[in-house]
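We read letters as residues; the integers encode the fold. Take this protein.
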Amino acid sequence: MPNTAALKAVRIGATSTLMLVQAVHLDSPYITEPSQQTLYVAGFVSPQRLQQQATRIPLAWLIVVWLTVTVMFLALPFIKLATMNSKERFSFLNLVLMAIGTDRRRKKSRLACRLLLTCS
């Protein structure tokens, strides 16, 4: 028998199932014969159950991946600010215009018209 797990398709009556055999090594001072130090454990499992468990992603991995993605996404503005040169940086006028442009209560602000001189 191999030292790793072995999987074999078997048919018991009219039911198709898989037999999983795993070698377990025993390290005990009470076992003196080398042939008795390896125990083979076997069990039956349905193919659907085996496929379900083989494709399952542990919740801890999902949490770690989503936290990493979220932190990276939230860090993008700070990375952008750190990599800007002096010509790309916002001035006080740019900040005022952005604040006025995001005002949802008014379609056109008087101050934006005065600053941009594009009022009609």
